[in-house]
# Entry
Amino acid sequence: MINVYYNNSCKVCNIEISHYKKKKVEGINWIDISGNNKLVSELNKTPEQLLRRLHVAKDDELYAGAAAFILLWQYLPNYKWLSKIFALPIIYQLFNILYELIAFFLYHKNKHQLEYFEK
# Structure
């Protein structure tokens, strides 16, 4: 069982997660972090940290960014091969850099969503 914490208010994020959700895989809980102050304390993350990266929790461990995607892909049919390839050392490093670049731009595009979290 995994919990996937994603930003449903981000159009790009929503498109990708909606694609994964259509697979209707048991064992995946999809949790929208948009304006969810409860998650800030539960996950011990700031709103900025939650909006900045995809997070996946498994067995009381929280994964973020590229590592979160690799874990998620392990649960999705037809994506397990991606998790194996992108987990390889050099490929993982490149994937992590690319993920961080894309996440940086998406965060700045959607930064206005911070106002939906209570101060």
User: Anything to note?
Assistant: The radius of gyration is 14 Å.
